[in-house]
Each structure stands twice: as C-alpha cells, then as structure tokens.
Amino acid sequence: MTAEHCPKKKKRKAPQGVATNKLVFSAYQGSNDGLFPHVLSLYVAPGSTVADVTYGNGVFWRKIPKGTYRLKASDIRHGVDATKLPYRDGSLDCVVFDPPYMHTPGGSAHKNHQNYEEYYRNNVVQAAEERTPKKYHEAVLDLYFKAAKEAHRVLRDQGVYIVKCGDEVCANQQRLTHVEIINELSVKGFVTEDLFILLRNNLPGVSRVLRQSHAKKNHSYFIVFRKSSSKTRWKGLPTRELARPMHEDVEELPLFQQRTEKVASA
C-alpha cells in the first residue's frame, strides 16, 4: 500500500487538567460546620435556593459566607415539620436534613446527643394518624423516609438532598442507618451521589458498662442524593473547575469559587 493510500492517524487529544491533591475528600475529622461547606461547594452551586429544614441553631452554616445561597431556614421547634414543608412542588435546588438520629430507650439514654424523643416525643405521644406507632429505631427510620418523600416533592429535577445520619446499636442489634436510608431512597426517585464520613474529635463514653459487644460509634455521615427520574449522570459543578494550562501552578481551590473568564473560555 502506497503512502498516499494509507489512512491518516487522528491526532491524539492532549489530556486536560492538572495534578493536585487539593481536593474535597470523603472523610474528615472535626465538626459539622467544618465538613458541611465542603459538601455544599461540591454539589450545590452558589446562588441556589437551599432549605435547611432542621436548621436549629444554624451550626452547619457558621463557616459559609452570608449571601452565598438563598437560605430558607426552618425547624420543628419553630413549627415547620420536615414531612410537611410549606414549599411548592419543584421549587428548591437543595434540601438539607439532619434530624435527631439516636433513639432514647426509656427517655434517658443519649441525653443531649441527637436523641429522637427529645424532639419528637416518640416514647410518650405518637402521631394521631399512626394506627400502629413505630418505636425506637424504626421510628427514626420512618422519619427519614417520610422527610425524603417530602423533599422529593419540593426539589426540582436534578435537585440535591443532603442527609446527615449515624448508625446505632438498638436492642443489641447492629443497625446501619446509612445503608437503610440509601436502600430506601434508591427506589424512591433518588440517586446516591456521595457519602462523607465525619469522625469526632473526642472519644464518646458511656455512663455504665458491663460488657462491650459492639464497637462504639464515633463517626457520622453526610449522604448526598440527587433527584432524578432519568439515567443522567452527575458531571460536577462549574464552580469546582480545576482545568487550567498545565504549566500553571494550582493554588488551593476556594470552597465557593466562581469560574473565572479564563477557565470558562478554556
């Protein structure tokens, strides 16, 4: 075969991007207000409408610059139930949910540590519409599932649902809450996009122990779900763009960086 008849080889596309370890990682040691900004910056674009339906004292938002998001703050103690939100269908870009996720057998265990009954009176008064009230861990799961259904209603298509949870041992049985939530939401219109692990700074203790049968939990999770009725895949936010000319040094990426004109035109 002569040279003029040989097929021309396509030019290999030069790889883009840069080498760096200055990224958002899946595990951090610290507190909620230290990790939460990383979760938001990776999945929720600045300017988005975000409803934190378990706002409490606003701990999650302490390190997020004011005005970065259009925040709608509410809480059960202020009369807004996460399972009955006052928002229109498909009106929100993101919903944040961090309920008390430790049940309280007898009303005293886990006192002042995200205990369910302190907020929802699970051991005392049950919702009137429940014919067979759920108790303990099942009641906690029930809250997660009902709140997820309501979040799905108020989120726009491709909207983000951020859930905080923790596993527990209930009646000497290991309950992997994060797995139970992921399994349930995966068949209810949500795609699981990410899982962040938060390790406590201090070691938790117990008041009395005779024999330890399970490892003591000293971590919790942020799970990121995306509302989607199609097979679309998450491709990341433009605000997390790292691609630059290869000869340039990469500085640490600001959490809520907007794309520069140089990056946007690349």
Keywords:
9 strands; Rossmann fold; alpha/beta; seven-stranded mixed sheet; 266 residues
Strand order of the largest sheet: 1-8-9-5-4-2-3
Oligomer: single chain
CATH architecture: 3-Layer(aba) Sandwich
Query: What is the number of strand segments?
Result: 9
The average pLDDT is 82
- Proportion of residues in helical segments: 10-25%
The tally of structural domains comes to: 1
* N/C terminus separation: 41 Å
Low-confidence stretches: 105-117, 119-128, 259-266
Q: Main beta sheet, described?
A: 7 strands, mixed
Which class in CATH terms? Alpha Beta
Along the chain, the helix and strand elements come as EHEEEHHEEEHEEH
Number of helices: 5
Proportion of residues in β-strands: 15-25%
Helix and strand arrangement:
Elements (H helix, E strand, L loop, with lengths): L26 E3 L2 H12 L5 E4 L17 E4 L18 E6 L18 H5 L16 H18 E11 L2 E3 L2 E3 L1 H9 L4 E10 L19 E9 L33 H4 L2
Parallel strand pairs: 1-8, 2-3, 2-4, 4-5
Antiparallel strand pairs: 5-9, 6-7, 8-9
Helix pairs in contact: 3-4
Notes on the structure:
Strand 6 and strand 7 form a beta hairpin. This protein has 5 helices and 9 strands. The longest helix is centred in the middle third of the chain and has 18 residues. It is α/β, with parallel strands linked by helices and 266 residues long. It has a 7-stranded mixed beta sheet, with helices on both faces. The C terminus is likely disordered. It has a single domain, classed as 3-Layer(aba) Sandwich (Rossmann fold).
